[in-house]
Amino acid sequence: MAGKVKTIAVLTSGGDAPGMNAAIRAVVRTAISRGLKVKGIKRGYMGLLNEEIIDMQARDVSDIIQRGGTILGTARCLEFKKPEVQQKGADICKKHGIDGIVVIGGDGSYRGAQSLSRLGINTIGLPGTIDLDIACTDYTIGFDTAVNTAMQAIDKVKDTSSSHERCSIIEVMGRNAGYIALWCGIANGAEDILLPEVYNYDEQEIINHIIENRKKGKTHHLIINAEGIGHSVSMSRRIEAATGLETRATILGYMQRGGNPTARDRVYASIMGAKAVDVMLEGKTNRVIAHRHGEFVDVDIEEALQMTKSIDPYQYEIAQMI
Ligand code: ADP
Ligand code: F6P
User: Fold this and answer.
1) Does domain 144-258 have CATH number 2.60.40.10?
2) For a disulfide at 122, which of 100, 108, 216, 275, Cβ 3.0-4.6 Å?
């Protein structure tokens, strides 16, 4: 149970994701509407340790809902894993009169939030990552934008690939998770989708598939490869050597993390940001806001970190079938 909250702070941590600004805006404006003071912590836990803490007013978050990235900046701060450093973070919060923090990030960021909660700072996490790899939620802030950005880029590569009758391997982000790859695989009509969760590393199967399709008259072959598998360039060389077909690799990279958030990312991030403040005001701490079975709910961080999820086998089967 949280103590009485009068001043809250918001920070973004880990990889940035489109929609984080919408979440920051919602946290700031909801908190102000509910009579709280709000502070922004720049550069994640690193900024907390360096006391990069600013007061935030409603106007400070004007004109950001449509912008990618995070106006607060983000960082990976490995030293925050050390108990003495976490204690320093909690002491800094107390020094600045911060009773609660909304942490926008992924699983790693929640562990930092959990440590602060244990040290008496109320914490609520928001799922911010393009990877969709947070088990407690069906939605993460940024995935929808990233997958649409990747889909549009892949459409463009497909145009040139079809014109030259080539095979294309396109590598999408996702760290160890295949969600972006699966979605692009379906949305772009890929011939093969390689996901870390299911790929058997049998390249001969892919080669046979390309050759069979060519015999049937298909003039191009699109392979979506997930970052967790990687090696797209060397794979393209081996496939070209085995099939005799011109094969090119494209690694989409960081463009997938930037850009204007989609309507879904703006709206869901706004609802989640507002709910984070309200959940904290209900007296809760050490919780994550999640979207499950069509509803926005809050989940204990401990439980959230223990949950697992994987690619839906039926969705993967459909992707291969159609
Ligand atoms: P994400 O939040 O997207 O999963 P990271 O795993 O890089 O990204 O974590 C972001 C930050 O969260 C780390 O740089 C670190 O500051 C903090 N963090 C990660 N793991 C822990 C941990 N076990 N304890 C405390 N803080 C952590
Ligand atoms: O978590 C988002 C993500 O873009 C992953 O898809 C990727 O593996 C990772 O971050 C890259 O991290 P960095 O920005 O540290 O290179």
Assistant:
1) no
2) 100
User: How far is the C-alpha of 276 from the C-alpha of 281, rounded, in Å?
Assistant: 9
* CATH 3.40.50.450 boundaries in the chain: 2-142+261-306
- Distance from the CA of 175 to the center of ligand 2, in angstroms? 6
Please state the atom number of ligand 1 nearest to the C-alpha of residue 86.
Answer: 25
Supply the residue whose CA is at minimum distance from atom 15 of ligand 2: 15
**Relative to the alpha carbon of 134, which ligand is closest?**
1
| Ligand lying nearest the CA atom of residue 18 | 2
Output the residue whose Cα is nearest ligand 1's atom 6: 108
Q: What is the dihedral of CA 87, 93, 95, 97, to 10 degrees?
A: -150
pTM of the model: 0.96
Query: What architecture is domain 2-142+261-306?
Result: 3-Layer(aba) Sandwich (3.40)
Nearest by Cα to 240 from 164, 187, 160: 164
Which residue numbers are catalytic? 131
Q: What is the pLDDT along the chain (322 residues), one digit of tens a residue?
A: 555 899 999 999 999 999 999 999 999 999 999 999 999 999 999 999 999 999 999 999 999 999 999 999 999 999 999 999 999 999 999 999 999 999 999 999 999 999 999 999 999 999 999 999 999 999 999 999 999 999 999 999 999 999 999 999 999 999 999 999 999 999 999 999 999 999 999 999 999 999 999 999 998 999 999 999 999 999 999 999 999 999 999 999 999 999 999 999 999 999 999 999 999 999 999 999 999 999 999 999 999 999 999 999 999 999 999 9
